[in-house]
Design goal:
By secondary structure, the chain is an all-alpha fold. 67% of the residues lie in helices and 3% in strands. Helix 5 packs across helix 11.
């Protein structure tokens, strides 16, 4: 069906497969040599016999694979990894009681029971800090309900949430003792299992904006999609919510006015499976799924997804036991390392960043799926299978990308003002992650690196030049530059920082060996890009919509 629709479309041109050509057999040969060598170089850096090993040895922990130590030095993933034994009983308890409620009808609706279980979970997680969370989210609700269709609604919503983002960071989550005096010091004693509630509040902030903006658009009826029908129920006319036909309709179709209430608002903001780190779902979509279950949810899909998650966790364990690149970068233990070794430290740091985000997102998404709420996957491509900066952000933190498009990019004018709006989008994204100079530098570097691709893609279009024999190779060279720039930006923001990237660039451009290494890297990346191009073509041939990402 999908293949037929693609074949019949005049806009999509299918090209013959190159997998069995001499050109690609050469690429396979290169892959068989280069990729294993990359792992060897990085593993050699992680041996006890390496001169820099004593500098980062203290960051390693006792492992469980063949007597190897494990690099659990990344605070973000390390916290998740260490808490898996605590999270699993919570997940099973939550799911069992929710299923039991559906069977025995302890509470009249699934949504009510979901809110009750969410309140219990948030009390366990954050203790008396739950009072702070309720206070902050309630003010947001009052803004949305008070100003409704007025332009003051989005203006105050954004101002308030950005203000909360800054003061949460500045006051480090506040203390009852500091706010109300020593008489309330006892409230600070029980902080729950996760004392730093304000770090995780960034995800709640996205849900707060989603509720107010969805309600604002619902009040202004800014959609051409029919939302409700009026039917006679027991002799009285009543508005009835229409069944959405697509996932997109769940997002854009306003709900009934009565659905934008405080009860539903709390159930959405505090929803346990997605509370800690997402993935992100809009308010309209969330409430719609409690009315009509998503057709995407099947037992087979959930079972296969569970197996995939277990496999990725085990793969991450192997990497952390044999490649100590996170500890090396934290200790800056790269004295006398060659440009190749420095680049491998940077590259595998990016791989681990990808996996350390992929695993928690898939874990909490699986929890949500088992609970009956469909939420989109965050990462739909491997980190190493990206050549376009624009497409990279569509497939990286995918639900956040869609959130920024709906609530920032489109309201700022969309593609009409793309060159300007991306600066606003990525400044917000950087500040949302953390209020740090290196993340602002990361956000602005992304914008700067996006501009050449945007300009080139609009001038050097496939429609105009796609049939030329050189087109694929010119695109390949441009993609190599893209990949190098994306790696630099992400290393600055999330791995080695500004100091580390300066050291790396100094070693590459300051020596003859470094420049020859850069040429070798460019050739390897060019080969990898041609494989990526063909993967997209194969997806296009079989009708997989992922080829656009």
């Amino acid at each position: 069906m999908m293949n037929d629709s693609i074949n019949n479309s005049p806009k999509i041109k299918l090209r013959p497969s190159r997998w069995r050509t001499k050109e690609f057999y050469f690429y396979y040969f290169c892959f068989c040599i280069v990729v294993p060598y990359m792992f060897k170089v990085t593993h050699d850096l992680s041996k006890k016999t390496h001169p820099n090993y004593p500098k980062y040895e203290s960051l390693l922990s006792k492992g469980w694979i063949f007597g190897r130590q494990v690099d659990n030095s990344d605070a973000q993933y390390g916290q998740f990894r260490d808490n898996i034994p605590k999270l699993l009983p919570l997940v099973f308890t939550h799911l069992i009681f929710n299923k039991a409620n559906q069977h025995y009808q302890w509470l009249s609706s699934k949504l009510k029971f979901s809110l009750l279980s969410s309140i219990i979970c948030i009390l366990l997680l954050h203790g008396f800090s739950t009072l702070k969370i309720f206070f902050l989210v309630s003010i947001n609700y009052i803004i949305g309900r008070r100003f409704k269709s007025s332009k003051w609604n989005p203006a105050l919503t954004w101002a308030y949430n950005l203000f909360v983002l800054f003061i949460n960071e500045y006051y480090d989550g506040y203390r009852f003792e500091h706010m109300f005096g020593s008489a309330f010091q006892w409230l600070d004693q029980w902080e729950g299992f996760q004392a730093r509630w304000h770090i995780l509040f960034n995800f709640a902030m996205l849900r707060l904006i989603s509720f107010n903006m969805d309600y604002y658009w619902a009040c202004n009826e800014r959609t051409n999609i029919s939302t409700v029908t009026t039917r006679k129920v027991k002799g009285h006319e009543k508005q009835v919510y229409e069944l959405p036909h697509t996932d997109k309709e769940r997002v854009v179709k306003p709900l009934l006015d009565e659905d934008y209430n405080y009860f539903n608002f709390l159930a959405y903001v505090l929803y346990t499976p997605l509370l800690l780190c997402g993935p992100i779902i809009t308010f309209n979509d969330f409430i719609s799924q409690f009315k009509y279950r998503s057709k995407n949810l099947t037992r087979r899909y959930i079972a296969f997804y569970t197996i995939r998650l277990i496999f990725v966790i085990l793969l991450m364990e192997v990497i952390l036991h044999y490649l100590y690149v996170v500890a090396i970068s934290k200790a800056k233990a790269w004295n006398n390392d060659t440009p190749l070794e420095l680049s491998m430290i940077g590259y595998f740091n990016l791989v681990i960043i990808w996996m350390k985000l992929l695993i928690p997102w898939r874990f909490f998404r699986l929890w949500s799926l088992m609970d009956g709420i469909w939420v989109e996957e965050n990462m739909v491509r491997c980190m190493s299978n990206n050549f376009s900066a624009q497409r990279f952000w569509k497939s990286w933190h995918r639900t956040f990308n869609r959130w920024t498009i709906r609530y920032i990019y489109i309201p700022l004018g969309g593609s009409k003002y793309f060159v300007y709006s991306i600066w606003v989008v990525f400044t917000f994204v950087a500040l949302w992650h953390d209020i740090e100079l290196k993340l602002l530098a990361w956000g602005w570097l992304i914008c700067l690196f996006l501009l050449p691709e945007i300009i080139a893609s609009r001038i050097f279009t496939e429609k105009k030049y796609g049939d030329r024999s050189y087109y694929r190779f010119v695109c390949g060279m441009g993609a190599v530059v893209n990949i190098l720039m994306m790696m630099i930006a992400n290393l600055v923001g999330f791995a080695v920082g500004l100091d580390g990237i300066k050291e790396l660039l100094r070693n590459i451009f300051g020596t003859v060996n470094g420049l020859s290494f850069l040429i070798s890297v460019a050739i390897c990346l060019f080969i990898a890009v041609q494989i990526m191009f063909e993967i997209r073509e194969e997806e296009k041939r079989r009708g997989d919509p992922k080829w656009k990402m």
